[in-house]
Amino acid sequence: MVTPTGQDGQETGTRYAVKGLQTLDRMPVVFRGERYDVANLSEQELTYLRQFPEAFPYLTESE
Fold it and tell me: Is residue 45's pLDDT more than 90?
């Protein structure tokens, strides 16, 4: 389970899981020309990337 942080470094409370991949401290991906760290997504990044489940099927709700 991963808890994203906001711009101020505080946890946002929105939790997500990365299913089917080994979770590392950093998990960089490039999507539509932007770089994201899947292990450390902000709430805004998570909300945006969840709009593309075909590209990010491993981003799921935490259990």
Answer: yes
Tell me how far apart the alpha carbons of residues 13 and 63 are, in angstroms, rounded to a whole number: 14
DSSP 19: T
Total Cβ atoms within 10 A of residue 20: 8
CA distances from 14 to 7, 32, 40, 57, 62 (A): 14, 24, 12, 18, 9
2-16 pLDDT tens trace: 655 545 555 555 678
- What does pTM read for this prediction? 0.73
